[in-house]
Design brief:
This protein has three domains: 2-123, no CATH class; 163-213, SH3 type barrels (Roll), CATH 2.30.30.60; 224-326, Sandwich (Immunoglobulin-like). Strands 7, 9, 10, 12, 13 and 14 form a six-stranded mixed beta sheet that branches. The protein has a five-stranded antiparallel beta sheet with strand order 4-3-2-1-5. By secondary structure, it is of the alpha+beta class. Helices cover 42% and strands 26% of the residues.
Length: 336
Amino acid sequence: MKIDKVEEKIQSLRRGSLKTIMYLVLLVLSLSIMNFLFGWKTIEEIPSFLQPFSSVILMVNPYLLYIQAALVFFFGYLAVNALSGLIYTYMRRISDHPTAAIMRTITRISGIALLLSTSASIFNVNPAAALTVGSFGGLVVGFATQTIMSHVVAGIFLLISRPFTYGDVITVRGQTGIVKEIKLMHLILESEDGTKEILIPSGNVVAQIIQKKIPPRTSKPAKTVLTLNVSPLKVAVGSTVVFTGNLKESETGKPVAGATIKIMERDIGREELLASGVTDKNGNFRIEWRAKKMDWRDNTAEIYAKFEGDKDHQRAQSEEYTVTITEQREDTNPSR
């Protein structure tokens, strides 16, 4: 089973690499074709075989820069999405899901920022003026976002280094609570009595001494392992996707019965609940979901299962699967 998963990840890496290269090649070809067809400024420069279309060429030429910028952003965005998926697949081979997901998000944000910069540079006529304005703008933005960026960088550090994990009881800046969520901007703690949430800026967490409580071994909730199987991985809108799996204690292998399992879909900066169900006496679950497009920008859904934990068991999360959702259902009962 593990060998099959490794092979799937290798195939996914290859597909991601090919898609990235393909989008970049298409970008270069489209820019070259547009420049060749509409890059003529006067009717005398237009080759003889394009003379019949001279009026169209001269009409489009003043807007060529805008068209090229649009092409750069369009194909560049597709390439960035493919590259971020490639980074996620690679990181999943060497790290856990949250770390891989944050690296994917960072790649997307960095790629989009680079695209905006590249698209804007197409319109720069005077490099010296562009440099001066860009430096001044960067200085202003840097001062304005200094605090925010320091918290974001600290949040990335916390996600990668993991000095604590979900469920740990820690004390930071005099605030004690259970680690509920680690985000880029904030660390979210839940008070030990469960009556309030405590949000601590990530920059303050990194700069402070962190006290982590070690609970007695007898009272520590048991670690759990959550597995997920998705079938099929390619469906049409409106089709039924079946999620099956199992929840058990990692050390004893004892099944966890009566646990609520949530099927989640992850995208940039958000998570969405698709469906939920309860495990049986053997720790197994079977949950159905009617497929729908989760994002107008692509036809895939990154799906995983999550167990929130209870007083006897720690929370758990399954491996993530990518389900491709097509527009139309295939006709399996043709008219006679």
